[in-house]
Amino acid sequence: MSVYSIYEPPHSAPDLATRADAFVFVKEGFSWPALFVPAVWLIYQRMWIELGVLLALLAFVGWAFGGTESGSLLLNIVSFGILAMFAFEANDLLGNALERRGYRYAGAALGEDLQDAELSFFRGWLPEQRQSEKLPKPRPTPQVKTTPAAAASEGDEVIGVFPRP
User: Fold this and answer.
1) DSSP label of 102
2) In angstroms, rounded to a whole number, what is the distance separating the alpha carbons of residues 60 and 48?
């Protein structure tokens, strides 16, 4: 079983089917493509900041260990270690990049593969959306902001900014 994190795009789609197609499913755990072709994987995912950091880190390691024969061996070992750690964290970094772009975390789903996870998620999500479409939209009510000083003047004893329990 695999766990997938689901992210909803920031823009709202005109209908429910288009909105459902725009969800992004990110598999939790190790990413094989990120291990074997990390730069290509980052470019494909449009993760420019992470690409720059990874290239700068690898360039620094190359500068620090390069030059001698023993340094070359150590450079290969350290570079592989960095890429292995990156592959373990790549999908989490993808989720963070999606949130930076305005995507909202919508939930998680379990499944043997991506199709099972999509079925699992949408079986719970679609009925909720259809039910919320049928409900009338509540009118917004004006909210009154209270300050700690206003709360204290109402007779509640205040310690700092927190009312006494």
Assistant:
1) T
2) 18
- Residue 9: band (very low, low, confident or very high) from pLDDT cuts 50, 70, 90: very high
Matching residue, tokens 């927190």: 162
Q: Are 14 and 111 in contact (CB under 8 A)?
A: no
Asked whether the predicted pLDDT for residue 109 surpasses 70, the reply is yes
| More confident position, 73 or 51 | 51
**Distance of alpha carbon 163 from alpha carbon 165, whole angstroms:** 6
CA dihedral (129, 133, 135, 139) positive or negative: positive
**CA distances for 157 relative to 80, 146, 164, angstroms:** 60, 15, 6
Interatomic CA distance for residues 10 and 103, integer angstroms: 5
SS (H, E, C) 6-39: EEECCCCCCCHHHHHHCCEEEECCCCHHHHHCHH
User: Quick one: tokens of 83?
Assistant: 């890429």
